[in-house]
Design brief:
The complex is a heterodimer.
Chain A: H1 2-19, H2 27-111, H3 116-128, H4 160-168
Chain B: E1 4-5, E2 11-12, E3 17-18, H1 22-30, H2 32-40, H3 49-62, E4 83-88, E5 93-99, E6 103-104, E7 108-115, H4 121-125, H5 128-141, E8 147-160, E9 163-178, H6 181-207
Parallel strand pairs in B: 1-5, 7-8
Antiparallel strand pairs in B: 2-3, 4-5, 6-7, 8-9
Helix pairs in contact in B: 1-2, 2-6, 5-6
Classes of the chains: A mainly alpha, B alpha/beta.
Amino acid sequence: MNKELQIIEKRVAKCEELKFKIVVNSQETYDQALEFGKNVNRLIKEVDAQEKDITKPINDSLKKIRNAFRPAKDKLEAIKKEIAGVMVEYIRAEEAKKKLEAERLEKRLEKGTIREDTVVKKLALAEETKTVTNGGMTSVLVIKNIDMEKLPKEYLIVDEGKIVRDYRAGITIPGVTCEYEKRSRF
Amino acid sequence: MKKEAVSNLPIDPRYNLSGLSWSHLVMIEKDPEEWYDVYVLGHKRKPTEAMKFGTKVHKQIAERKFRGKLKEVYYGNNPETQLTCKIFYTKTKSFNIFGTPDDHGTLSLYEYKTGTKLWTQKQADNHGQLFTYALLLRESKKIYIDVAYLISLETKHLTVNDKTKIVLTGNRRTLKVEITHQDLLKIQARFINGYKKALKTIKEHEER
């Protein structure tokens, strides 16, 4: 592989050398630049092919190994997910129960049917006896609902692909201007 | 029956009172043995550079000597007021808690935090120190706090002539936290559990 790489590096160095000589200021020099660009493109394809000769068998082997291990991993992931679901369900139920009880106590306190120190004592006991999750649980911030009418523009991501596709299809999109820009192609 | 705070908790030199502060509670919850070492045996921890910088910034805010990037920081009209109150864990038995909010007004309190990472809303919402101060204000001054502002000031390490110092970057976040009656009940419950742990730790040491 080292020998092949050395040959490629030599050809790349040659290309770099030639690149500095390219000046486009007439039809003739434009055509020369186009030809040079095409040669560079051909070299890229050759390098790609050589690379693939080496990487393809490795990738195929990797794929085979991954496929062999996948079923076991998938089964374990499914078991993990199921256990996590049961744990989350239990903690959620416990928290909901705790919240309800705290609200009930607060209402009784407002009505004057219970003393504040009794409420605090009950809350302390609930806190003391709650399930200790020991890092087995985490809180993740999730978006529950979005009101598109109220959402400020800064949170929107433009679907540029759809704009370009629709523009090509002749659809007028309010607020959007498109134009064709020149790009070189070899 | 006379209602007074009776406890075996150590006397805090800053308040000259036996009881717990927010700092005590955090340490008890994390490691009661460390709390015993620091607050009962008096083995003080050496402050880090970040802690020293935080103290400096708090001093500037308290003395209203805003300089440079500290300008335009929210504030109330009562900086660094030492407060104490009692938490009753039965009808007649209580222990003291104490604390010094950075600043407060008649409905709001202000707490400043310095650090390389700005605080998040969730961190502020769950920050018991705000509820502790709201409770202290309610109990000791009959001030009913509706909202607390946690002002997070970003810092960075700056190296000049091979010397590294901590400076404010100018980035800050003002996080608003609504204070409810339930928050005040829950923080009392938390202190009671902390108090129980503290007493248990003291007792274990006495029996050794």
